[in-house]
Amino acid sequence: xxPTDRLLAFAAMSFLLIVVPGPSVLFVIGRALAQGRRAAxxxxxxxxxxxxxxxxxxxxxxxxxxxxxxxxxxxxxxxGAAYLVYLGVKAWRGRGSLRAAFAEDVxxxxxxxxxxxxxxxxxxxxxxxKTIVFFAAVLPQFVDRGQGHVxxxxxxxxxxxNVIALVSDAGxxxxxxxxxxxxxxxxxxxxxxxxVGGLTMIxxxxxxxxxxxxx
Length: 215
Description:
Blueprint: H1 4-19, H2 23-35, H3 37-68, H4 70-93, H5 98-109, H6 114-126, H7 129-137, H8 150-178, H9 180-185, H10 187-210
Helix pairs in contact: 1-8, 1-10, 2-3, 2-5, 2-8, 3-4, 3-6, 3-7, 3-8, 4-7, 4-10
């Protein structure tokens, strides 16, 4: 349905976005540091479900509009690219304060039950600005309209994104749960994470801006 080269290219771009620490990753790590592995994995599950709701919205709503209009596509693409660059610059400038963000997430995570943890993970996933921008501005580029079944192609691509996100976020959570004190003890380590994440986000935004429709 989706050509292999497009599927692999989408998976690679998805990976670049997913590995950058953002709202979802910080939330998962906060739960892991505060409550351990089970809470982290429950948060990841909720987060993944929330992200796939965004896929459904794009596949059956925004995506069809973007797919039919070059103007809408270009406008959304450039707006999305600009926002990704903005997030990257913000992450770079705020890399020194990442420790405080971890501390806030740990405090917020304390005292919550499993079901509440799941739904809060869902809320973070469905409102994650990085994911919203990526699905709306990037996902339609990898659809082969000549193959038909545009919505089905978007659902498949979204599934690929979510599988990668599930593995990545779970990995972040497990690492944080295993070494709870390692990140928090070193502001330098946290600064490095934020700096690399910011530069990667800027690079991804530029890539989105210069990438055309794959017709």
